[in-house]
Every structure is written in structure tokens, then in C-alpha cells.
Amino acid sequence: MANRHEVAVVLGTRPEIIKLAGVVRTLGETARVIFTAQHYQDDLSDVFFRSLGLPQPYLSLAGIGGASRGMQIAQGVDQLVQHFETQRPHLVIVQGDTNATSAGAQAANYCGIPLLHVEAGLRSYDRDMPEEINRKVVSVMADVHCAPTVCNANNLLAEGILPAQIRVTGNTIVEATWDAIPNAEVSSAVMSTYGVDGDDFILATIHRPENTDSALRLAKILRELVALPYPVIFPVHPRTAARVREFGLDHLIDRLRPVLPLDRTTFLTLARSARLLISDSGGVLEECTILKKPLVVVRKSTERPEAISTGFAVRVTADEGILDQVSRILADPGLCEVLKRVPSPYGDGKATERIAGIATAMVRGEMPPFTDLDSLGLEYEQPYVYQ
User: Fold this and answer.
1) CATH class held by domain 7-171+348-376
2) Helix 264-273 crosses helix 282-291 at what angle (to 10 degrees)?
3) Which is the catalytic residue, given 83, 90, 117, 207?
């Protein structure tokens, strides 16, 4: 029988918590949640953990939230190494590509503790993205890589990772999204609160530095959102709000329907009902394939090409503009019906079960055989050729 707290799960941001909540619940008392507080906010307090059925973190690191990227990673590594040296786990799990992910991976490596990387193998090949550097650093250190898709596994193989170290699991975002979609009564209340009915609106989120740190680029995006033929609900990220004030673009924001950042239930309710989505978020790229909604992703590169290759999303840069792509989507009234029949490329809703099983096997010193891709019931295009 597994011992208590022998699997250290290092988390630092809301997406990590959401995506690994099911794994932590499945591992039960075996799991030791360590919260780096990379993005500490009141809504990431103990109440948020409890809302996902998670225990209070076993350990919360100090002095990391609000620090620079370098300091977050350095302080995270230092505090985690100290903890691992006094309370050594049998396994460390990290998720994705955050500073917490990098710190957790490095601390495990320095202490000689096996490392399991969840959401491994994503690549944008854009070195300007800090997340890309974090992903590649962790891949060098991981003992086992849980790749969401065959495309991700192929990326790892191309970098020299051994096949025996890779497991294609799907992405836990599938079941996490299914679990978070509210019932009809709650959904109706959300729609009423935001004054929308049916799909007569567009939901847009913009927050990445490539889109917000240039006054010309941000103004162009906002003008194009204003020009769309449907009302645009626009949750305003703190970074975006600061740039709007700095660049004097309030007159454009005011012509949209700006709202405060949304909790997950509200966002998914609106996204599921919207005519289409516009975003630069990696998470929305995954969620659109689960909600079966078309997405215009405003980025110069993406580490999630599967959403594009399966027809859910189209990528444009801010300089290229979004109007043409939005017009094309709106001109195809049957698109949403087509998308309803397309399986999400991110899995079948069993990734949590697979990842927890792999973690348990690693703790026992066992490893299941390399995943039989055909047995997963997932549909992918492979190999994916990057343009």
C-alpha cells in the first residue's frame, strides 16, 4: 500500500491546479500538494482548493508571488530543495510550462528524485516565449513524459527522448472541463447576469505581451473587436487593463462589453453559448475543442497546433488582423454542427486515470508498457508538419 504524501505535486497557477486536481484526488493521501504561489491571488486561497475537492496545500512557498521570473524560479528551487532534503518524496509531479514547473523539475533533479512531467512535449519553437524555455528545460530533466497527443510525443522523440520514457495520455483538461460545466439552472443565471440570450454574442480575451505591450497592436485589436457585428463580452485581464490605461485606449474598451476577469464556471458557460471565441490563451485553444466552438487565436505561434489541424481554431497575428477570419466563420452557419462531430484532439476524458496510474507505478518501481496508441480511442493527425 502506498505511503502518505510520498508523491509531491508542485503547483503554482490556476491552470495547473485545475488540470492536476483530478490526479491529486485520485492519488488521495499519497499526494503532497506544494503550492509555489506563482500567481497568488485571494481566489487561489484554500477556498479555491476546496472547491476542486483538494486538501489545503501541504506546503506553501513564501515570497514568490509578484517576483520576477528569475527570482520565482530561483527561490522556488531553493525552498523546494530544502523541503525535499528534509521530507524526501518518492516522486515529483509537475504540470505544463510555468515557473513553478521549472522550479519543481530542477529541485527534483538536484535531489535525485524521479520526475513525472504532465503535459509534456508541447512546442511552439518560439524562444521569445518564457513558457517554451520552461517546457524544454523540464523535458531534459523528466524521467517520464506524459504527452497529451501523438504530436507532442513526436516532438519529444525528435529531441532524443527515448520511447520508453513517453506515455501518450490525453490531456486532463478534457475531464476537468466536463466536470466544470454547470447545470442548466446555473447556466441560465449566468446568461441573464451578462444580458445575453442564445449565441448572439462573441467572447474575447486578450492578455499576452505580444498583443498588449504595443500600443499600436492593442489598439488595432480593440478597433477590430468594436467593428464586429455582434456584441463582444471582453473579460479584461489585469495586464490588459494596465496597458489600456497607459496607452489611453479606454474609449475603445468602453465600446465593448468589458467585464472583470471571470471565474471558470462563468467563462465556460459563456464560451459554450457564444457564436465564436477570440483569444490568445493556450487554455482556450484546448477548451474550444471540448465545447465545440470555433476560435480565432491571436498569436504569432502556438504550442497547441492540434486545435488548428482539426478545424476548431484558426491562427492570425494582431498585425494580420482578425476581421477576415471572423467574417469567414460567421459566413458558415453549419460550422458549429460540423465541429460537434469532431472529437477533441486532447483526449477521451481518461487522462487523469492514466496519469495517476503511471505515478503509482513509478512509486512502486514499476512502469507500464509504452502506450498502445490505438487503444486510447483518440483521433489524431500524425505526423503533424509544422509550417
Assistant:
1) alpha beta
2) 60
3) 207
